[in-house]
Amino acid sequence: MNIQNLIEQAQRAKTFSYSPYSKFRVGAALLTEDDEIILGTNVENASFGLTCCAERVAIFKAYSDGKRKFKAIAITSDDKNFCPPCGACRQIIWELCGDIDVILVDGAGNHKIFKASEFLPFPFGDENLKGV
Ligand code: THU
Question: Who is most buried in 12, 31, 68, 71, counting CB within 10 A?
Answer without folding.
Answer: 31
